[in-house]
Specification:
6 helices; ribonucleoprotein
């Protein structure tokens, strides 16, 4: 019998990750896929698709969101209320001006998470802020 005491408890704890978009060179899609992996917990050795073992992600400076090409002018977001004639479309540029970069990042991450009952719970652990200030400083680990 082994006498080794593992770090299983550390794997099960939910840690907090800080992502500063002003210094991150990744574009929207690559950043959103990495955030989705962290929210699902796929980076942990105890990952199981049926359990929610992901971490918290705090994104600051969302107004500095980086996209490639002419996506700011040409990409459109659609919404529909299932009523006839209620299809609405808005460009990424207008959405950035109206709701900020956090909403664009949230929609990108939401599209990359699995479409199941855990998606809304995982999205609740994503915290987006337009500026550098956020109320979760005490939760972040100093590394």
């Amino acid at each position: 019998m082994s006498q080794y005491v593992g770090r299983t408890r550390l794997a099960y704890t939910r840690s907090w990750h800080l992502t500063d978009l002003s210094t991150d060179p990744r574009s929207l899609g690559r950043l959103a896929s990495q955030i989705a992996i962290t929210l699902m917990g796929k980076h942990k050795p105890i990952f199981d698709p049926s359990t929610d073992c992901g971490d918290y992600v705090v994104c600051v400076n969302c107004h500095d969101l980086h996209t490639t090409g002419k996506k700011m002018e040409k990409k459109k977001y659609y919404s529909h209320t299932t009523r006839p004639g209620s299809l609405k479309e808005i460009t990424m540029e207008k959405m950035m001006a109206k709701w900020g970069g956090g909403e664009i990042l949230r929609r990108a991450v939401r599209g990359m998470l699995p479409k199941n009952r855990l998606r809304d719970v995982r999205m609740g652990r994503l915290k987006c802020f337009e500026g550098a200030e956020h109320p979760y400083r005490q939760n972040l680990w100093k590394t």
